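Assemble and predict.
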Amino acid sequence: MTPKKILYLMLFMAAAIHLSTSPIQAQTEIPNQKANKKVDFQPSVSASIFHFSDFATSPLNYLGFGGSGAANWKWQTPKRQHFLGIDFFSGMAVANAPLSSYFQPNNSSTVTSFSIYDKHLFPILKPKLPDFLRLHVGGKFLSTSYFRSNNSFQNNGTGFESLLNLMLSGKATVDISRKEAWTLDLFLFEKTFKPKERYLSFGFDAGIINMNLRPSYSYLSMLEFNGSETSPISLLLGDHSWSLNGWRMNTCFEYTRYRKNGNGYKWAYVWDAAYVPGKFENFQIATHSLRYTLIVNLK
Amino acid sequence: MINKTNKKNTAKILIISIIALLTTSCELIMFDRANPSTDPHENFNYLWNEIDKKYSYFEYKNLDWDAVKSKYEVQLRDSMSDEELFDVLANMMIELRDDHSNLIAPFNISRYNLPMKKPANFNMRTIKEFYLPNGRSTGAFFHDFLPGGDIAYIRYSSFSNGITNQQLDHIINRYSNTKGLIIDLRENGGGSINNVPMILERFVHEKTQVGYFINRNGEGHDDFSEPYNFYLNSYDSIRYMQPVAVLTDRGSYSATTMFSLATKALDNIILVGDTTGGGGGLPNGGELPNGWNYRFSITQLLDMNKQNFAEAGVPPDVTASFDWSDITKDEILERAMEELRK
């Protein structure tokens, strides 16, 4: 199967997963399910450390920090959770060049990425689990494009990769809510802890079909040059090609706190790693983020 | 309410989650290892291999790259200084005889320096003092009517200098009634290839193919892509259709060589002066294990007959040279004026 066919298959599967939870189907839900339907808007910000290597241009690892902003939406019924989101990340990294007592090289690179995802989770083993534990499995379609800039690489100074991943997803959620108020007697004063709805969850996404767009053999190519009408994008991407290889994994360890009105917030540690062999030389990137998310109950 | 058993279970799940998180979040055991190193042998081998895999002119220059390795590898010592290592690596790159091949360390940049190996053919002082004493500057262009008023002169010193269509409109309008135009690209070491068509398309009356590009695409020294076309379009507004002479010398390099090669396919433009410096290949860029940078050519520029002479330099249509015994006169400029007045 050619990479192009795989790409079409991935898009078809992502569309199929998405349509399976479309509003048309939602309308057929029984009334009590409909009453349990919840829609959240979840904007988030993250602070991240990340590192990457692009072995086509350098044998070194680049380590840096950055931040991201994301807009996420969550539709939840007792039978499924549907997440949709976009994420914009920007950061700066420096090369881990060995220390020199003479002149220290200090190359740096900026990294910008844009991601879009569509994730669906379904509850499993519900009758067999204790009340405080919920397990979900499902799938995720994730697409991320990385733009990198490193002036010291001159004509190879702009790097671009695009990743398309169809992933297997899972999530374990533990209900750590305080169901009843209790009072702590500290002799001089008392502190009353009110009931709170809160959860800890651990989620993962593991790529099962991983596609990537990477540069050509020589990284930079002169393709058809149509004078002043030559598109800069064609110069940048003209000789990139799709490959079906590598891996991608995400994990998320998350604390969620809901208020009585359904709003709330989340703190999470998020890990995202991708290994992208492409056709010729590897690219790899990992991001470790501390993420704060507001939960705005829309319905 | 969470009872004692559930609390125990919660603790277990938490511990399992944290272990899972820690194990899956450790990408270092799954990623390829980076290779920072100051070891002279590792840096030498990395650079030699990169050039071996990607440089585009081994066959054209009849270069025995294995012999080059043998010649310089014996000069390596474990305890050599940064300066000594730089010299070995730089000398290895100079064997490529290509000014697009450079080793770039924080304390030095290596160069083949072709213009310094050939006679100089340009003196700006001569132009400014004896031909264009009141020359005008429009952006990156220095220009005016030459003595006699029938021919105009435009100096463009570097393709790295940005240009705009508004500037070109202004200049071409000003000289629209002249018999001919001289574009002086001597000592123009190149820059952005996007500026090449911006200028040349002012002298083209229809879309014209002027050459080809091929890219190194495999480990064999003669592994190249199919030829890709190099076109010029015709600018859709103000153009200049009278004869044009382009002045070149050995300092005309890279984008200027690309410009000069393209003129070979255009009937209304002649090259006057010396062969260009070359630099027909597009250079890449990268980094060594010790953090130094390098670049070298990874493509070839071919003419309309798919001949590869651009790397050695584009020859002039009319050969002329600057006589340094009399700097009140620019023989190359005089010869171009003579050709345009024919």
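Chain B has nine helices and 14 strands.
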